[in-house]
Design goal:
This protein is an all-alpha fold. The chain is built from 3 helices and no strands.
C-alpha cells in the first residue's frame, strides 16, 4: 500500500484530526515540527492532535526506539512496511543525536 492511499492507524485516535492520506504519515503531523506534540506549537490550532512529542525520546535506548517504529511497542505505530532497517536506524540516530531545542526560536 502506498501510504498516501490511507490514514496512519493511530490517526483516528483523536477526533480533531482533519487531515487524511499521506499527511497522516508525517512524524511532524502528530509530534509537531518542534518535537513537542501536544505541549508545543501543535497544542492548538488546525494541527492539534493531542499526541505527545518526541523530545523526551532521545533518552530511550536504540532498541526501545526501534520497537516504536517496527510495531513491537505498538502495532498501530508500525512503519517497518514503509521504512527499512537502515532508514529506521537513521531515524533512531536523529532522535538520539540530532534533535534541537527550538523553543528559543519559536514565538508563542
Amino acid at each position: 500500500m502506498d501510504v498516501s492511499e490511507g490514514d496512519q492507524a493511530l490517526w483516528a485516535t483523536p477526533e480533531s484530526n482533519a487531515r487524511s492520506g499521506g499527511d497522516t504519515w508525517r512524524c511532524k503531523e502528530c509530534h509537531g515540527w518542534d518535537y513537542n506534540g501536544a505541549d508545543g506549537v501543535y497544542a492548538s490550532g488546525s494541527h492539534a492532535t493531542g499526541f505527545p512529542g518526541i523530545a523526551h525520546a532521545a533518552a530511550l535506548s536504540a532498541e526501545e526506539l526501534v520497537s516504536w517504529f517496527d510495531g513491537s511497542a505498538n502495532a498501530d505505530h508500525d512503519f517497518s512496511e514503509y521504512m527499512g532497517e537502515e532508514q529506521i536506524a537513521m531515524l533512531v540516530a536523529f532522535i538520539q543525536e540530532g534533535l534541537a531545542d527550538t523553543s528559543a526560536l519559536i514565538n508563542d
